[in-house]
Specification:
Shape: elongated
Structural class: mainly alpha
Number of strands: 0
Number of helices: 4
Oligomer: single chain
Largest sheet: none
Helix content: over 70%
Order of helices and strands: HHHH
């Protein structure tokens, strides 16, 4: 699909959804979920960046990202603990 067409469809869909009155709660919920996922990926990246000196590497994949996003910093620390003690 042509990128110009995709941008045009999105540019027309957003005002239409605002006029129709789409509830803001699903959009707010999705925005918060994407923000948590982005923060989780950034935390995992920095753990890998600074942990490489100690032989610590946590792969950034779907499972580790979702676990970190849902559980937050305790989730990241639990992944580090699993890596140290189990692996």
């Amino acid at each position: 699909m042509d990128p110009v067409l995709v941008v045009l469809l999105l540019a027309l869909a957003i005002p239409l959804l605002l006029i129709v009155g789409m509830p803001a709660s699903p959009i707010k919920w999705m925005g918060q979920a994407f923000m948590k996922i982005a923060i989780a990926v950034i935390l995992l990246f920095f753990i890998n960046l600074f942990g490489s000196e100690f032989g610590l590497h946590i792969p950034i994949n779907g499972f580790t990202t979702i676990a970190s996003a849902v559980l937050g910093i305790p989730g990241v620390l639990s992944l580090v603990a699993i890596h140290i003690w189990v692996l």
